[in-house]
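Final report, Chapter 2: Outcomes

The project's central promise was a pipeline that accepts a single protein chain and returns its three-dimensional structure in a standardized token representation, suitable for archiving and comparison. That pipeline is now operational. To close this chapter, we reproduce one record exactly as it appears in the project archive, with the input sequence first and the structure output second.
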Amino acid sequence: MPLAIAGIYAALSVLTFTVYGIDKSAARRGTQRTPEAELHLLALLGGWPGALVAQRVFRHKTRKQPFRAYFWVTVAVNCGALVWLLSRFASA
């Protein structure tokens, strides 16, 4: 995997992990939450490894079945796009 792509995944994972932490804190305080669509977008763009770790660390978004189903769809779509992108690099 090209270093730039790995760096993008790492940066998005850190960002996504942070956003999950902020959302969990807001849930506990009863203040304004991060929209689920934003959490899914971050996962779709490549932050899903950070989201997966954050779900375990913060015990956040682990029980909502519709959310989890959409989350795994974003992971599958992102991984499919990554495979396609890497295959394009390999053939170039």
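Archive annotation: The helical segments are 3-29, 36-57, 65-91.
This record, like all others produced under the grant, will remain available to the consortium after the project formally closes.
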